[in-house]
Amino acid sequence: DWFFQTMFVCATVSIVSGAVAERIKIWPFFAFAVVMAGIIYPISMGWQWGGGWLSTAGFSDFAGSTLVHACGGAAALAGVIVLGPRNGRFSSQGGKRVMVPFAASSIPLVTLGTFLLWFGWFGFNGFSQLAMGTFDDVNAISKIAVNTHLAGAAGTVTGAAITRLIGGKTDIVMMLNGALAGLVAITAEPLTPGPITAMVIGSIGAVIMYYGTKMLERLGLDDVVGAIPVHMFAGIFGTLVVPLTNVNTTFGTQFVGMFSVVAFSFILSYLTFSAMKATIGLRISKEAEKLGTDKAEV
Fold first, then answer.
1. Terminal CA-to-CA distance of the chain, rounded, Å?
2. d(CA 46, CA 50)
3. What whole-number distance in Å separates Cα of residue 243 and Cα of residue 247?
4. Distance CA 129, CA 122 (A)
5. 242: which residues sit within 8 A by CB, 6+ positions away?
6. Would you give the distance in Å from CA 81 to the centre of its chain?
7. Which of 147, 199, 155 is nearest to 174 (CA)?
8. Least packed by Cβ within 10 Å: which of 2, 66, 216, 292?
9. Given CA atoms 278, 283, 287, 288 in this order, what sign does their dihedral have?
10. Residue 295 to residues 26, 217, 290: CA-CA distances in angstroms?
11. What phi and psi values does residue 58 have, to the nearest 5 degrees?
12. Is residue 245 within 8 Å of residue 188, measured between CB atoms?
């Protein structure tokens, strides 16, 4: 169990790092990582997986759509709000600008990274069963793996289709984020859905990711990698639809659990980022931002 909790807390921190990239100082981010790993995640995780009040109430989140992904996404939202957008990301009228990519930017490498995540998700979801001692356990892990894969695949296809239909061309990044959104959405309950239902959940997760990304852009919130719509928005959706296939929980219980974890993570993260901004500072200089944090901060 300690291995999974270590993996999950690393996931929450990495979600935040992607959203606030290219403009945050490295040591304040390390300080926030300590707060996330030592306070925010352990407390909210304990409400469910530690036998706390959410577990008693009947909340269900098999492998962490809310407890890991939405928790990290809410913290990322707080960081993005406090930090502000990258220089040149939005015009004076609030419109989105296409950023000139850094030299190390590579779509093939992004694709490789996404499929490494996808591969890791079989362990993330499948081995959250936490047992392989019986036929039923092994059968459950197999079903979880199939549903996980189908949801990710459906998210990929949906990301490709929606960008082609709306934007006129296939957006590779939206495809990749569609895959991740599908994987996040199915994570709350990958065992009880049938294959078709798993694909529907993954597909809807990708749609939510797409429109969530556009909404953040309209609001002037600069999420570098799309971590908030992928992890927070799709994670919330996946958590709320669990009762459609799992009769042991209710929509009301799912909403209360989701809202509690998201609100707790957002508020503590916002206070932490705001306190550091007012004291030690969060943002690198404009010159360092132009140079790139790999050169300026390391």
1. 34
2. 4
3. 6
4. 11
5. 60, 61, 188, 189, 249, 254
6. 17
7. 155
8. 2
9. positive
10. 12, 28, 10
11. 100, 15
12. no
Unique residue bearing structure tokens 């459609």:
244
H-type alpha helices, the chain: 2-19, 26-35, 41-48, 53-57, 71-83, 107-121, 135-167, 172-187, 195-218, 227, 234-240, 251-278, 286-291, 293-296
Collapsed DSSP state (helix, strand, coil) of residue 109: helix
Q: Please write the tens of the pLDDT for every residue from 27-59.
A: 999 999 999 999 999 999 999 999 999 999 999
Query: For tokens 């000139």, what's the residue?
Result: 100
DSSP tag of 228: I
pTM: 0.94
Residue 169 in tokens? 């061309």
In sequence order, the 6+-apart residues with CB closer than 8 A to the CB of 234 are 65, 69, 180, 181, 182, 184, 185, 205, 206, 208, 209, 212
Structure token pair of residue 193 = 């859905």
Q: Which residues pair with 283 in a beta bridge?
A: 24
Q: What angle do CA 110, 5, 298 make, to 5 degrees?
A: 45
Residue found under tokens 């209710």: 250
- Residue 110 structure tokens: 């992004």
Q: What is the distance between the alpha carbons of residues 86 and 169, in angstroms, rounded to a whole number?
A: 26
Q: Tens of pLDDT along 54-75?
A: 999 999 999 999 999 999 999 9
